[in-house]
Amino acid sequence: MVSAIVSANGAVFHFEYRDPQDGSDSPVSGNPYYDSESTVWRDERTAIRTERRAGKVIGETTFAVAKDGRSYTASSSRTTPEDGHLYVSFIRWERVPDREILIDPSTVKDICLYHSILSRCAARLA
Question: Structure pTM?
Answer without folding.
Answer: 0.70
